[in-house]
Amino acid sequence: MASALSLQIQCPVCLCDFTDPVSLPCKHSYCRQCITSVLQNSVSQSKCPECRLPFSQKDIKTNRPLRNMVDVTREHLQNLSSQEDMLCPEHEDKLKLFCETDCELVCLICKEEDEHRGHTFKPAKEVAETSKEELKGALSFLADENRQLSEMIPKQDAEMVKTKHKYKNLLALMSAEFEGLHQFLREKEKEVKKHLEEEESKAVMSMQRRMSTIKELLKEGKEQEDELQSALQISHADRFLQWWSETGFAVVEQIKLKENEKSSKATPSSAVYASRLGSIKITPDFLTFGPFETHLSFFIWREMLRSIKPVVKCATTMDSNLKLSFSKDVEQQDGSENVFARFPKIQNRYRDDRTENLRSGQWYWEVDVEVDPNWNLGLTVRHYQKRRNIPVL
User: Fold this and answer.
1) Which segments constitute the B box-type domain (predicted)?
2) Are strands 324-327 and 379-385 parallel, antiparallel or unpaired?
């Protein structure tokens, strides 16, 4: 009963009896010092440790009824502890001894019984004082841990706010990056389609010119065919010969090969006619888009890579654990050549035997750390004058 009552006057933060209790609008109560510490340690808006509802300094109100109840309850608990000593339920004698063997209170009569023969006994007051000291140590430790935990709550809440803010920034950054990629693809798609349309227009235009030539020849041939067909219908020889001499002979001669035009031995049965189709051929489909037909995604991907620029942070915004150090082992001389040295790992050691020309501008390095747990963030670049004999490190 006393234990349940004492829990009602404990602060949820420090787990000790209320000291100058105050209340929040959410009806939860705390020690004034405890809730003030929560308010001071909050990076953003302070929140109730129990229900997480926000509050401010002006929301902290003194709880006089609770303070009076704490005083009355504490006095009542003290009176309970000062009541008469407990009696042995079997012998109705005062429980003055503590059996360390059985870890229980006993009276002087219980000590002499066979049940407790050979056991170790100490005065109850002495054991109580020792236990209280141990309890105080545990209570102090627990209260300190609870205080630390209560201080962690606003700090963790602040980290959550940072994470959410960072998430929004990263989300905006990712959206912008993807929008840039989408815009690049849209523009590239428009460009490729326009180029394909131009190629299609060229191919169709060439075919249309050939089509016009074919139609003209066909029209001319049809007119000649109709004229010759009509001449065959002339039944009178004199009329036919009149047409032949005036028109037909010239038309037929135009159809014959040129080498037969002057041949006097050529007869109608042996004459060879010149085909108009010799130089007229169907223009085949030659529309092609080259490697774009089968490897379009590869070429677009390659152009996309060329358009991507690495994001480089300046020294003021770079991770403080990332270090870049330079050293000059040899003084520069006029007209000498600067070189950049790489350090390949050979049998658990490094050799300084690879050099490259160091040009002006920005340089980027990719470092493979593999699975070495002792690897520290950093990159060492040795900058010196080129020389023939390079020592082994």
Assistant:
1) 83-124
2) parallel
284: exposed, middle or buried (Cβ count in 10 Å: 0-12, 13-18, 19+): exposed
Query: In which residue ranges of the chain is CATH 3.30.40.10 found?
Result: 1-83
Show Cβ contacts of residue 184 under 8 Å, excluding neighbours closer than 6 positions: 304, 307
Among the four given CATH numbers 3.30.40.10, 3.60.21.10, 3.40.50.620, 3.40.30.10, the one describing domain 1-83: 3.30.40.10
Are the C-beta atoms of residues 121 and 111 closer than 8 Å to each other? Answer: yes
Q: What's the angle, vertex CA 318, arms to CA 313 and CA 321, rounded to 5?
A: 150
Dihedral class, residue 241 (left if φ above 0, else alpha if ψ from -120 to 50, else beta): alpha
Say which residues have a Cβ less than 8 Å from residue 59's Cβ, sequence separation at least 6.
Answer: 24, 25
CA distances to 129, 264, 327, 361, 386 from 338, rounded to whole Å, are 80, 92, 13, 13, 6
Sheet holding 379-385, edge to edge: 324-327, 379-385, 338-342, 354-357
Residue pair 60/32 in contact (Cβ under 8 Å)? The answer is yes
Distance CA 107, CA 89 (A): 10
How much is the pTM?
0.42
Among 145, 146, 153, residue whose Cα is nearest residue 49:
153
- Look up residue 61 and give its two tokens: 């109100």
Give per-residue pLDDT as tens, 46-104: 888 888 888 888 888 888 888 888 888 877 777 665 545 577 777 777 777 888 888 88
